[in-house]
Hints:
The chain has 6 helices and 11 strands. By secondary structure, it is an alpha/beta fold.
Amino acid sequence: MTATFYDRLAPYYHLLYGDWEAAITRQGDALSDLLTAQGIAPGAPILDAACGIGTQAIGLARHGYRLTASDISPGALARLRDELARRDLRARVQVDDLRTLRGVESESMAAVLACDNSLPHLLSDAELLQALRTCHRCLRPGGVAVFSVRDYASIARVSPDVRPYGMRHAAGSRFLAVQVWEWDGDQYDLRVYLTTESPTGACTTQVLTSRYYAVSITRLLALLGEAGFVDAQRRDDVLFQPVLLARRAHAAG
Ligand SMILES: C[S@@+](CC[C@H](N)C(=O)[O-])C[C@H]1O[C@@H](n2cnc3c(N)ncnc32)[C@H](O)[C@@H]1O
């Protein structure tokens, strides 16, 4: 379900932003500053394990990180390959599931990232713990994990919760995207209504559906500890949503 949702969304994903290019630059700069402050300078091997079409990955590749970019959506990765090629940037791009990361060697990465609320696509604490343990496995001793997530504790649970992105203009057409959330306990179904209006006024609407687990940041911090991470902390000064930062302990001795 998640892969299909992002496969279908991939051609339109940049239109969810008012200015995607500016977001790439802003987020790449902010994450590069964060990693550098953690002792992970450009040139280090890093993994964006939920890269999508590359909002963080492109900026980080531009900063000179040795990037592996993976995602569960082949459609998003096809678009990322095009976006990297257009900018003459290089990365290893591969389909991989955050819960297993079979294509990534143990202890090979200086940092593992999964940004813009990717973790809550995993629908239980057990799945989240599996993913966090897997990220821990991929990190070198002393390496860091960086996850950005929604703060669900600050969101009122009303159904339907209608959230418009705004009107965009692309290739002579108008484009309108609206999210609708419908709650079901600690999870919610998310529908994205994508309407394109051509210059002649002809409209088409697609409806894409996905599901999220509204896991709290307190719970995620506890799961990071259970997965073996140390120094897990919430940072509100990095991106547009809270960032969880945690470290794999340095090797003893
Ligand atoms: C909101 S998008 C963010 C994408 C990207 N980080 C960005 O900001 O452009 C969430 C991403 O998580 C990916 N994702 C969800 N579940 C995943 C899983 N189990 N393994 C790998 N990627 C996953 C989706 O395919 C999607 O690309």
